[in-house]
Specification:
One of its GO terms (molecular function) is actin binding. This is Myosin binding protein C2. The protein has 1157 residues and is mainly beta. 5% of the residues lie in helices and 46% in strands. The strands form 21 sheets. Strands 31, 33, 34, 37, 38, 40, 43, 44 and 45 form a 9-stranded mixed sheet that branches. Strands 56, 57, 59, 60, 61 and 62 form a 6-stranded antiparallel sheet that branches. The two termini are 102 Å apart.
């Protein structure tokens, strides 16, 4: 019936259609199902439900056990197996049995097979197996005498008559059911499986639970057996070996030179003492020594691409009992040892008493011991409950023995009597028994009494005494004497009389009895009291007396057996007083005095105000609070916040002792508010009132680096840098003032030593100057004048920046001089196609005339661009060619003064060359001729590369080869190679290599090449853009990258261009190619780097182009004069960017091809 378990012997009965099949384990039995399992001869019909039930006794488990259900050997059933398989568990409180149930809904043909239930506890585990068979629906008839159908009997005779008719129909339906059990595509998938582990994966993926039936049907299927080319003798499907023995697996291979590998569960085996590999002719033998249960696994043998599979089963021999249990008869309290001997050392045995398994309980009554093949069950002190039939079980047998425990007879001649004593007196318990040899133990409230300095235990003849010296209150208890080995006990009680006493930690002094309480907290005074009999307690506050639960307002008294508690719910200043407690009993009286002091946090500080402010600081002042909370003020805490904000920031974490505080590190120009807290030993007060809002602000510092840039007969040009500190007010502009040297005193010496007064300085500008430069006009010629500059903002004027020496107003003539850079003092070398940009500074005043010549002739403005400023000149060639080589003369002239410099430019071109001279073995002799054009530079070496005709991927063989020939070795037999050579000079490798006109074929010895009878697929394709470039806008100074994706075969050559001009070896650009993803990194772009960028991919079949626009935006601040553009004219002119440094304005770079507006 559904929900019931099978009896110990199993069950054989027909199962009606639509009912659940229950296979179970009785919870009270020790072994669960029989070792062979149980099988229902009449299986459930297809489409009906099935259930498996297992039981487990709780009385033998310390905690809930774990259960797992398996189908077959490995397939675990659970939530991942589908919703048809549901596991549940219940616990029977009366029988103390766990019931585990597996419910299978809508049973199908694939559910038949062997099942296993494994239960694991903390110290033991068990398992049982059963099988389920599923057939077609049976037609069953019930017969009865007009009663309920469930009360009738099955008509087995009618079933037997009909069974002969149904046999043929079942055979006909069986094949159809098997065909419908699994879809056809699954069978096709199973036929192509080569590894046994794949069967389980496919069965789990498609929900097939009948793995054994699937494998049986697959075995019957006619599969074309492929003849093995590597193996002439294969492994057996499976091997079996006893535990501890060795096993040999033998295969025979067709070629003895082929390498062979052995695997266990997919892991490769290595030769060792455990695994021995042998080679005997064409035989390959794997020997596994001393097999253990860990060797039970799937093994694999692999040669080249072919693999053989087998499985090894390790059989564990049964453990036999060689010497059984003996019967024992003992008395209560004796030590019992049951001994048994088995056939193997370290074997597992199970001890049972009266059919119940024995374990180590909390009292450690049973002790289990192993000594080689011998096993012992030890009972230290036997009791009447230990009488019974003991059994020891192994997986190969069992043995039984009977234990009888009898009582000893003992007579009590004198019983112990109750005692009543006072403190410090002696208590003596005495008893007399009939046997002088009987020993015993004394117990106090069930705990054994141990002898000590106060407690003495004696045994003289038949008398047993327990003497307690200096009796204390903790000695009051029930005392019991228990003779050893007898079911007898003698008991008596010790009563203690004690005067009342109050137990306080203090000695009674007023200072030590004072209790400090924080206002608002709950006060609870728990005063421990002792005394026998229990004393009465009374409390007194000043002159007011209260007792028990009486209260004074918020205060109350609580009395407990061992203490008296005085409670104040919320302490106030009025609760501060003297309290007295008195305890009394018939033996005496005791009292104690307590003082309660209520303290609180102080009031907030008063008169909080700001007295002065600065650039980033403010002075905060306050008055101490009027009430300090009963404790001295230990310090103050300050906080500040921005006006309008709710977030306060602490200014100090350690208390501050003074009433004046300087707050620093504030933001200039921001409104702030501040507040103060008072702190005492109790805590922190409420915050004071906020100060009025205030703002830190200050003028700027003086301008820096004031220098004279130029001077004429009537003017002087000054330049300076902004102040180091601007502050929140910023800078509105500058005032320039000058003063004649010695204008007031008329004494040159005094003018140098005494600074001018404020009235002597003459303003040079009426309106503020925003730039860091100004030209003072209308100055008297020949006079010595001092200059100073003052910064102005909302807070006022800054300190002046004054020039250290006076300036004489007159024109200065400076000789022309060319400052030729170090790298241009020797031959300047550039590659063909690269840019030439020469910046040559010069000096001279007034502005000199600059002239460029090449080999004594003027330059062609169509090919060479020249730009000249007051301080330097630039020669620019966009794309260098061979005819640009030569000597360039630069002349700088002022009237009859002149300076000249000569620059020599040299540009190398690409070299060429190559042929295969001789081929022998795996070596090739390669020779070539030097290039016709050495690029105006000595050839330093050659780079040789090789490529296989199949892949045409080039690999470098030699670098920096000095000779015009080389021998290339270690070539692969059967491959045909091409070679190419690059020439190298100080400029680098040549642009194009010299490719060999003939190829080198490395012949195979003794092997005839058979051409393929089919045409190979042509994988070549023209370059194609998969992901194009996209337009981008970036900020100047922040590195960026352009990305695109290109596909093509052979691998295309990638060319990056800017404004349709190829980008060559420029350190500003970094080009990468990763699996067809092309990236151009631009390091810290400037506005000059904006333009149209394009990526061109070219191979022998075609080319592909993608373009995008890059816009670089510069972030400029108002009034920032740290850079400027100089020069440029026409529609496509040139301009120069000058950067202001410590020495003045200097060239910072150049731009080309900009359209000026």
């Amino acid at each position: 019936r559904p929900g019931e378990a099978l009896p110990a012997g199993g069950l054989s009965a027909p199962c009606p259609p639509g009912k659940e099949l229950a296979v179970g384990v009785p919870g009270a039995g020790p072994g669960g199902l029989p070792a062979g399992g149980a099988e229902c001869p009449v299986p459930p019909r297809e489409g009906a439900g099935g259930a498996g039930v297992g039981g487990w006794g709780r009385d033998r488990l310390s905690a809930r056990p774990g259960v797992r259900w398996f189908k077959g050997k490995w397939l675990e059933l659970g939530t991942k197996s589908g919703i048809r398989f549901q596991c549940s568990e219940t616990f029977d409180q009366d029988k103390k049995v766990y019931i585990f149930e597996l419910l299978i809904g809508k049973v199908v043909i694939g559910d038949r097979g062997d099942y296993r239930c494994e239960v694991t506890g903390k110290e033991k585990s068990d398992m049982c197996t059963f099988s389920i068979d599923v057939e077609g629906e049976l037609s069953l008839s019930l017969r009865g005498d007009g009663k309920d159908n469930m009360a009738g009997e099955l008509d087995f005779s009618g079933l037997l008559k009909k069974r002969e008719v149904q046999v043929e129909e079942k055979k006909k339906k069986k094949k159809d059911e098997e065909d419908d059990a699994f879809p056809p595509e699954i069978w096709e998938l199973l036929k192509g499986v080569t590894k046994k582990s794949e069967y389980e994966r496919i069965a789990f993926q498609y929900g097939i639970t009948d793995l054994r039936g699937m494998l049986k049907r697959l075995k019957k299927a006619k599969v074309e057996v492929k003849k093995s080319a590597a193996f002439t003798r294969k492994l057996d499907p499976a091997y079996q070996v006893d535990k501890g023995n060795k096993i040999k697996m033998v295969v025979e291979i067709s070629d003895p030179d082929l390498p062979i590998k052995w695997y266990k569960n997919g892991q490769e085996l290595k030769p060792s003492a455990k695994y021995v590999f042998e080679n005997v002719g064409k035989k390959r033998i794997l020997t596994i020594n001393k097999c253990t249960l860990a060797d039970d696994a799937a093994y694999e043998c692999a040669v080249a691409d072919e693999k053989l599979f087998t499985e090894l089963f390790v059989k564990e021999p049964p453990v036999l009992i060689t010497k059984g249990l003996d019967d024992h008869q003992v008395f209560v309290g004796d030590r019992v040892q049951l001994e048994v001997e088995v056939s193997e050392e370290g074997a597992q045995v199970m001890w049972m008493k009266d059919g119940v398994e024995l374990t180590r309980d909390t009292a450690f009554k049973y002790r289990f011991k192993k000594d080689g093949k011998k096993h012992y069950l030890i009972i230290n002190e036997a009791t009447k409950e230990d009488t019974g039939l003991y059994r020891v079980m192994t997986n190969g047998g069992q043995s039984e023995g009977e234990l009888v425990v009898e009582d000893k007879q003992l007579e009590v001649l004198q019983d112990i009597a109750d005692l009543t004593v006072k403190a410090a007196e002696q208590a003596e318990f005495k008893c007399e028994v009939s046997d002088e040899k009987v020993t015993g133990k004394w117990y106090k409230n069930g705990v054994e009494v141990r002898p000590s300095k106060r407690i003495h235990i004696t045994h003289k003849g038949r008398f047993h005494k327990l003497v307690i010296e200096d009796v204390r209150p903790e000695d009051e208890a029930d005392y019991t004497f228990v003779p050893d080995g007898f079911a007898l006990s003698l008991s008596a009680k010790l009563n203690f009389l004690e005067p009342p006493r109050i137990h306080l930690d203090c000695s009674g002094k007023t200072a030590e009895n004072t209790i400090i309480v924080v206002a608002g907290n709950k006060v609870r005074l728990d005063v421990p009291i002792t005394g026998e009999p229990a004393p009465t307690v009374s409390w007194m506050k000043g002159d007011k007396v209260g007792a028990g639960a009486e209260t004074w307002g918020r205060a109350r008294v609580e009395v407990h057996p061992d203490e008296s508690s005085f409670v104040i719910d919320s302490a106030e200043r009025g609760d501060e007083d003297t309290y007295c407690i008195t305890v009394t009993n018939p033996v005496g009286q005791d009292s104690a005095v307590l003082h309660i002091k209520v303290v609180d946090v102080p009031d907030p500080p008063e008169a909080v105000r700001i007295t002065s402010v600065g650039e980033d600081w403010a002075i905060l002042v306050w008055d101490p609070p009027k009430y300090d909370g009963g404790n001295p003020i230990t310090g103050y805490l300050m906080e500040r916040k921005k006006k309008g904000s709710m977030r306060w920031m602490k200014l100090n974490f350690e208390v501050y002792g003074d009433t004046t505080y300087e707050s620093t590190r504030m933001i200039e120009g921001v409104l702030y508010e501040m507040r103060v807290f008072a702190v005492n030993a109790i805590g922190v007060s409420q915050p004071s009132h906020n100060t009025k809002p205030f703002m830190p602000i200050a003028p700027t510092s003086e301008p820096t680096h004031l220098t004279l840039e130029d001077v004429t007969d009537t003017t002087a040009t000054l330049k300076w840098r902004p102040p180091d500190r601007l502050g929140a007010g910023g800078i509105d502009g500058y005032l320039v003032q000058y003063c004649l040297e010695g204008s007031e005193e008329g004494d040159a010496h005094l003018a140098l030593t005494v600074p001018p007064t404020a009235d002597e300085w003459v303003p040079a500008n009426t309106e503020l100057v925003e730039r860091c430069g100004f030209t003072v006009k209308g100055l008297p010629t020949g006079q010595k004048i001092l200059f100073r500059v003052i910064g102005v903002n909302i807070a006022g004027q800054s300190a002046p920046a004054t020039m250290g020496q006076p300036v004489t107003i007159r024109e200065i003539v400076e000789q022309p001089k060319i400052r030729l850079p170090r790298q241009l003092r020797q031959t300047y070398i550039k590659k063909v196609g690269e840019q030439v940009n020469l910046l040559i500074p010069f000096q001279g005043k007034p502005r000199p005339k600059v002239t460029w010549m090449k080999d004594g002739r003027p330059l062609d403005p169509k090919e060479v661009s020249i730009r000249t400023s007051d301080l330097d000149t630039i020669l620019f060639i966009r794309s260098a060619a061979r005819h640009h080589s030569g000597q360039y003369q630069l002349s700088v002239q002022i009237e009859n003064m002149e300076d000249q410099a000569t620059i020599q430019i040299q540009k190398p071109g690409p070299p060429v060359a190559v042929q295969v001279k001789e081929v022998w073995g795996f070596n090739v002799l390669l020779e070539w001729q030097p290039p016709k054009d050495d690029g105006n530079s000595e050839i330093t070496g050659y780079t040789i590369q090789k490529a296989d005709k199949k892949t045409m991927e080039w690999f470098t063989v030699y670098e920096h080869n000095r000779l015009t020939r080389c021998t290339i070795s270690d070539l692969v037999m059967g491959n045909e190679y091409s070679f190419r050579v690059y020439s190298q000079n100080i400029c680098g490798l040549s642009d194009t290599p010299g490719v060999s006109k003939n190829t080198a074929l490395i012949q195979k010895t003794g092997i005839i090449f058979k051409p393929l009878d089919y045409q190979e697929h042509d994988f070549r394709m023209a370059p194609r853009v998969l992901t194009p470039l996209i337009d981008r806008t970036v900020v100047a100074g922040y590195s960026t990258a352009l990305n695109c994706a290109v596909r093509g075969h052979p691998k295309p050559k990638v060319i990056w261009m800017k404004n349709h001009v190829e980008i060559r070896e420029d350190p500003k650009f970094l080009m990468k190619n990763s699996q067809g993803v092309l990236t151009l990194h631009i390091r810290k772009p400037s506005p000059f780097d904006a333009g149209t960028y394009s990526c061109l991919a070219v191979n022998e079949l075609g080319e592909a182009l993608t373009e995008c626009k890059l816009d670089v935006r510069a972030l400029a601040q108002a009034g920032d004069q740290r850079c400027r553009w100089v020069g440029g004219s026409g529609v496509r002119g040139q301009c120069r960017l000058e950067i202001r440094g410590a020495a003045g304005w200097g060239a910072g770079g150049a731009c080309r091809g900009w359209e000026m507006t």
